[in-house]
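Retry 2 of 3 after timeout on previous attempt. Resubmitting structure tokens to design endpoint.
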């Protein structure tokens, strides 16, 4: 839904006023399973990405907090960690009337027609977006935990709430960069041809300029509702599962020592 709603010049049949309308029309006209298009690509990267994500989070948070605040929690440390972390095939398959029937077919077509570099056109934009997103995300989560769970005990409700709010705030703040990333990943033919842009669009600066030419300031916030709705349960689930396993494994380790 987010990919569709971020389209700058969508097909008349793919113009939606709200997330609910988008979901309803996609299911009715394209089939019940269409909203799950690209899920296999997402799942392939989710496991190792989250394993590295939270392992580095714990280590960096501990090291930086000790350095910056002599063992206490440091918002600066949380922000610095967020700077270090954060998909063309997925978004190509999610576009309206996408010609790609499978992941491998999409990869072959893009590589044959646009070259291997097509998979990395939005790489710098993705990295640039991850800097503010993760910084805001982690600072907000830790800030909320300090206020609603100051003892830092295992509290599922506090982890879900903090994770959801942190994801929503970070998602809303970085929507302009996400819109540019989507444009670079999808290379919307209608949008580019309307500006007489030949070839393929590349570079973050060009993406920002193109988005403004096509939609003005409002164009940078296309799909913000879908992005926030997507990130809230995503980050809430990630944090609650992470905190559960952290609590479970730590408790088990302490019991073995005892």
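Retry 2 succeeded. Sequence:
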């Amino acid at each position: 839904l987010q990919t569709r709603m971020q389209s700058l010049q969508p097909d008349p049949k793919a113009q939606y006023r709200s997330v609910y309308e988008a979901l309803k029309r996609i299911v009715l006209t394209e089939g019940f399973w269409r909203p799950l298009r690209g899920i296999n690509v997402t799942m392939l990267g989710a496991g190792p990405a989250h394993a590295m994500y939270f392992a580095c989070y714990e280590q960096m948070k501990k090291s930086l907090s000790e350095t910056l605040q002599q063992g206490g929690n440091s918002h600066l440390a949380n922000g610095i960690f967020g700077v270090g972390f954060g998909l063309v095939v997925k978004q190509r398959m999610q576009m309206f009337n996408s010609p790609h029937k499978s992941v491998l077919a999409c990869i072959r077509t893009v590589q044959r027609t646009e070259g291997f570099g097509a998979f990395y056109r939005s790489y710098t934009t993705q990295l640039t977006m991850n800097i503010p997103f993760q910084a805001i995300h982690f600072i907000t989560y830790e800030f909320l935990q300090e206020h609603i769970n100051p003892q830092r005990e295992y509290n599922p409700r506090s982890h879900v709430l903090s994770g959801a709010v942190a994801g929503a705030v970070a998602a809303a703040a970085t929507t302009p960069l996400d819109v540019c990333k989507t444009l670079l990943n999808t290379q919307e033919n209608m949008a580019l041809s309307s500006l007489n842009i030949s070839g393929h669009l590349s570079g973050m600066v060009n993406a920002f300029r193109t988005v403004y030419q096509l939609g003005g300031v409002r164009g940078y916030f296309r799909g913000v509702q879908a992005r926030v709705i997507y990130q809230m349960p995503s980050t809430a689930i990630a944090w609650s599962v992470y905190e559960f396993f952290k609590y479970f494994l730590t408790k088990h380790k302490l019991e073995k020592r005892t």
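Attempt log closed. The longest helix spans residues 224-257.
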